[in-house]
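Figure 6 in text form: structure in, sequence out.
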């Protein structure tokens, strides 16, 4: 009968590390908002600038001819009249002096000058005409009518943006993680081995 003897065995269990890779693809979302707008239409407008005709009457000439002169005009008239009469008297005196000094003139020169002077004073100038001679001066303003038009305007205002919007959800990602952890496990197992006297038992552990 063979007797079995107990023998211890060394057990080694080993596990290598394992990496896990998880890839998430990116998704692109495109949204295009619908544009909205408002239209403001400004119609042309007409404005009229109108000034009626008018006139002005200048009665100064009529008043002067009627004897209703202004102080300035009366003084100028009297001045011109006095100047004219003075020049006339001077011219007559020169003429009378020349006649008196003319020794070759026959007759009584003094009597002739007195006769001529008396005749001039007796001559009366009669002037018959309308009063006043001139009509008042009229200054006309024809007036005007100006028609102005404003420009027609069409204003378009956009309320929102109409460019497309790009959104990446979820983003592209690569996740690397440790799937299996490395380890070494060493244990001793008890067992029985056959016993044969006279033979060497060679058992690999």
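Output sequence:
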């Amino acid at each position: 009968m063979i007797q079995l003897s107990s023998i211890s065995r060394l057990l080694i269990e080993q596990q290598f590390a394992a990496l896990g890779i998880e890839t998430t693809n990116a998704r692109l979302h495109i949204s295009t908002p619908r544009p909205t707008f408002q239209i403001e239409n400004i119609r042309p407008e007409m404005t009229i600038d109108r000034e009626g005709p008018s006139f002005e009457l200048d009665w100064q000439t009529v008043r002067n001819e009627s004897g209703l002169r202004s102080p300035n005009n009366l003084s100028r008239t009297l001045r011109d009249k006095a100047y004219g009469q003075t020049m006339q008297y001077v011219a007559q005196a020169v003429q009378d002096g020349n006649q008196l000094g003319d020794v070759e003139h026959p007759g009584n020169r003094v009597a002739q000058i007195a006769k001529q002077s008396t005749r001039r004073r007796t001559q009366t100038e009669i002037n018959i005409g309308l009063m006043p001679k001139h009509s008042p001066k009229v200054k006309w303003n024809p007036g005007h009518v100006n028609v102005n038009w404003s420009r027609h305007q069409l204003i378009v205002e956009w309320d929102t943006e109409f460019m497309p919007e790009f959104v990446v959800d979820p983003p592209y990602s690569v996740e690397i993680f440790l799937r299996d952890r490395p380890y070494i496990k060493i244990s001793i197992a008890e067992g029985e081995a056959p016993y044969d006297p006279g033979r060497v038992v060679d058992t690999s552990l």
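Caption detail: The first strand starts at residue 3 and ends at 15.
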